[in-house]
Amino acid sequence: MTSRAQELLAARARRVNAIRQRVIAAVVASFVLAWGVVAWNGSMGADTSSAAQTTTPAETTTPTDSTDTYSEDTYSDDSTSSDDGASLSTGQS
């Protein structure tokens, strides 16, 4: 190789090394900043520090008396239903 080619390769190596150092510095700075935000604001998860508050939903009592009879009294449903919505199934959110 000629001295000119070696100079070009050395310059390229310096540029690549500088870019690598900048990327590493940016990653470390971002990591430190993120940890600083977490330390300042606290975790972003569920709030476990306060006591759980239990509230009772307002009950709307509308009894529905229904008599459902299917195919010659093989099934009969005589019930009063009052759904207060206190429990959620896995399909609800």
TrEMBL record:
Record organism: Solirubrobacter phytolaccae
Chain segments annotated as transmembrane: 21-40
Keyword field contains Transmembrane helix: yes
The keyword Transmembrane is assigned to this record: yes
Protein name from the UniProt record: Uncharacterized protein
Keywords: Membrane, Transmembrane, Transmembrane helix
Residue segments, region Disordered: 46-93
Low complexity composition bias: residue spans: 46-69, 77-93
